[in-house]
């Protein structure tokens, strides 16, 4: 027997996304000076309820074409496993011709230095705000990935028609959840559509 879907689910996410987009993104981009065969940028932006989020964007070196307009890159965005630090995709994979982003959702990984869940939910993210969908940890965590996409589509070097979400463990759940609420995602299952 398939689980039932609450009748107000779409309305909940539409309201959540409207609230998210009513708040300024306030992204800060810092290009890191590292001796790597690709470029890395540290991103800090505001997620739902203006909670700060940290992410890393990696771009291949050949995005700069001598004297030619560069072709916009497809982007792969993902979140960490439940520990908050481990990613199923690595930044160096950008060398295959993608923009690769690792998002640390609110209170996880480096984002934990910017904002923390209540003490009873530290390292037990699923307990933060669990009594109501409004304010539940994963309401914010899903939208932290959506907010990253909000930023990516403003960049001329990113192809807004080729954005994918991926992840393993909790990162897979974050990818599925964000893809279900953001129609700009082109690779990743969305609710109501069959899996590829």
Describe the structure.
With 196 residues, this protein is α/β, with parallel strands linked by helices. It has one domain: Alpha/Beta hydrolase fold, catalytic domain (Rossmann fold, 3-Layer(aba) Sandwich), CATH 3.40.50.1820. The chain is built from three helices and six strands, in the order H-E-E-E-E-E-H-E-H. It has helices at 9-21, 137-152, 170-181; strands spanning 28-31, 38-46, 52-60, 73-78, 99-104, 158-166. A six-stranded mixed sheet has the order 1-2-3-5-4-6. Helix 2 (137-152) crosses helix 3 (170-181). The chain is globular. The two termini are 22 Å apart. Residues 189-196 have low confidence and may be disordered.
Briefly summarize what is shown:
This protein is 21% helix and 22% strand. With 196 residues, it is of the alpha/beta class. Strands 1-2-3-5-4-6 form a 6-stranded mixed beta sheet.
Which sequence of strands runs across the widest sheet? 1-2-3-5-4-6
The name CATH uses for the topology is: Rossmann fold
Q: What is the C-alpha radius of gyration, as a whole number of Å?
A: 17 Å
Mean pLDDT: 89
Proportion in β-strands:
15-25%
Counting DSSP H or I runs of 4 or more residues, the number of helices is 3
Q: How many beta-strand elements? A: 6
Q: Give the helix proportion (percent range).
A: 10-25%
Q: Which stretches are low in confidence, meaning pLDDT under 50 for 5 or more residues running? A: 189-196
CATH homolog superfamily: Alpha/Beta hydrolase fold, catalytic domain
């Amino acid at each position: 027997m398939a689980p039932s879907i609450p009748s107000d689910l779409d309305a909940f996410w539409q309201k959540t996304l409207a609230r998210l987009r009513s708040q300024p993104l306030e992204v800060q981009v810092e290009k890191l000076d590292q001796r790597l065969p690709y470029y890395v940028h540290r991103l800090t932006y505001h997620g739902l309820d203006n909670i700060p989020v940290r992410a890393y964007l990696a771009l291949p070196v050949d995005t700069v074409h001598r004297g030619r307009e560069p072709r916009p890159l497809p982007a792969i965005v993902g979140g960490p496993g439940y520990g908050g630090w481990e990613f199923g995709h690595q930044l160096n994979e950008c060398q295959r011709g993608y923009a690769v982003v690792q998002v640390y959702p609110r209170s996880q990984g480096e984002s934990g230095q910017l904002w923390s869940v209540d003490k009873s939910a530290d390292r037990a993210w699923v307990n933060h705000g669990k009594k109501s969908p409004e304010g539940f940890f994963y309401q914010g965590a899903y939208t932290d990935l959506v907010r990253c996409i909000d930023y990516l589509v403003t960049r001329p070097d990113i192809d807004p028609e080729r954005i994918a979400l991926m992840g393993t463990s909790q990162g897979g759940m974050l990818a599925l959840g964000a893809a279900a609420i953001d129609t700009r995602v082109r690779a990743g299952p969305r609710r109501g559509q069959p899996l590829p």
